[in-house]
Amino acid sequence: MHRHRHSFIALLFCCLSTLSSALFSTMVQAAIVENVRTYRAPDYTRLVFDLSEQVEHQIFSLENPNRLVIDLSDATLFANFSDLNLSGTPISNIRSAARNDNDTRVVLDLNAAVQARSFLLEANDQYGNRLVVDLYDNGSSSNDRGEREPVITASADDIANNKRDIVVAISAGHGGDDPGAIGVDRIQEKRVVLAIARQIESILNQMPGYRPVMVRDGDYYVGLRGRTNIAHQNNADFFIAIHADAFTSSSARGATVYALSRRGATSEQARRMAEKENGADLIGGVGSVSLADKDEVLVSVLLDLSMTASIASSLEAGDKIISALGNVTRMRRTSVEQAAFVVLKQADIPSLLIEAGYITNPTDARNLNSPSYQQQFASAVVSGITAYFYTTPPRGTLIAWHKNNGGGPSAYIVTRGDNLSEIAERFNVSLAALQAANNISDSVIQLGQELIIPNALMPVLASVSFREHVVSSGESLSQIAEDYAVPLQRIRATNQLNSDTIWIGQILRIPSS
């Protein structure tokens, strides 16, 4: 009797152990929703679930009232929805509940009908596993994401008379779930490059004959191919991507301009940068994309002809921008670097990617985070762009028409009592255009300073090269001017000095002509 009882207890213990192990195994395998984030783009809302591991899921919509249901299999919700900012989104409320013991159901209460798309992203260097749910506003979808009606600033008469605007697409790197590089004091690349892009947009908006198009104008992510699509859909004549670099050593600093390469990278730095930027979709979150079938031979021939021409134009424009940026920042490379950047593969659009500096360098990071420096940097970029288009304006544009009819820049020497806004008004140009043409980030000018006065329709950059001089002990500004045979007022103006006070170790830009 005792023997049977011991056997029964042993069997029961074994069963309980097996059941306990099974339950423990189930608990271990269950995914955890650790955090939830939202981002708002112009045409869609993104919801990102941070997961401890990949999950099976499904989504479906309900009407009357509008809702979106997200079912997560073998998942437990630890995230809190109460802190999410839902303003400007179609989501009025988010609620959740356990379902079928091991599953979780999330319900989005909607104030408008949406088209939903979801996809999973595997863990990478920046994030763990994620579930992304995109809610496209009624009337848009993932297929036409980025498509926008062109906004023409030139009048109908101008268009009819071959005087259309030159369209410049401005792409601020990263955004949304992809912060880009993280620099000194936790400065995020996505924020500083958006600020610079907005400054470029603002300056171009004040220049007749130009129309800027922002690829992203907020904290949301646009896929690399989507950026290209936005440029094409707006019939862009030029595409420029703004980024900031990062490196393991804080000593690396300076700006670099990149163009597309059909072959290999021109340097190890260019190869590394292309790998970094081309991987952005893995972080920012882009689902699988299917391309329509095309005649591969025909497409290959056409792309080869078009891309060869656009790369040559990109290199020419890059040289102009480098000349302009050299007046306001240190250049890590003084010629255009080349690598296989996905975002630059426009084929028929001259395209450049600018790394505005190293966000991991204290000096560069401080500059990149400074509104006044952002404006100064943007002015130099605009100067390079407009100098390029003055040389080779697209046919049918207002700039081409003006050049063919004798337009051009002139010079003005600042006299006593002048101020920049009055000079701009006197020559019928905008203050922003005057600042851009002269790489001036504020309104400070010096007596005797030579200003380039851009025609009201034709801002250009003077072809001036610069050297750097590091101030040493005992030197004075007048002595440095004499040593370099450059007028003192030109050194003051070039370095935006309000006085002749300089300090040891200060870097001065010395104009060579």
Automatic annotation (TrEMBL):
Signal peptide: 1-30
Major localisation: periplasm
Subcellular compartments: Periplasm
Record CDD domains: LysM, MurNAc-LAA
Domain LysM: 410-453, 467-510
PROSITE patterns referenced in this protein's UniProt entry, alphabetically: LYSM
Cellular component GO terms, alphabetical: outer membrane-bounded periplasmic space
Domain of life where this protein originates: Bacteria
Keyword flag Signal: yes
SMART domains referenced in this protein's UniProt entry, alphabetically: Ami_3 (SM00646), LysM (SM00257)
Key word Hydrolase present: yes
GO terms (BP aspect): cell wall organization; peptidoglycan catabolic process
Gene Ontology MF terms in the entry: N-acetylmuramoyl-L-alanine amidase activity
Enzyme class: hydrolase
Substrates-to-products reaction catalysed: Hydrolyzes the link between N-acetylmuramoyl residues and L-amino acid residues in certain cell-wall glycopeptides
Pfam family, one: Amidase_3
Keywords: Cell wall biogenesis/degradation, Hydrolase, Periplasm, Signal
EC code: 3.5.1.28
Entry-linked InterPro entries: AMIN_dom, LysM, LysM_dom_sf, MurNAc-LAA_cat, N-acetylmuramoyl_amidase_3
Similarity comment: family membership: Belongs to the N-acetylmuramoyl-L-alanine amidase 3 family.
Protein name (Swiss-Prot/TrEMBL): N-acetylmuramoyl-L-alanine amidase AmiC
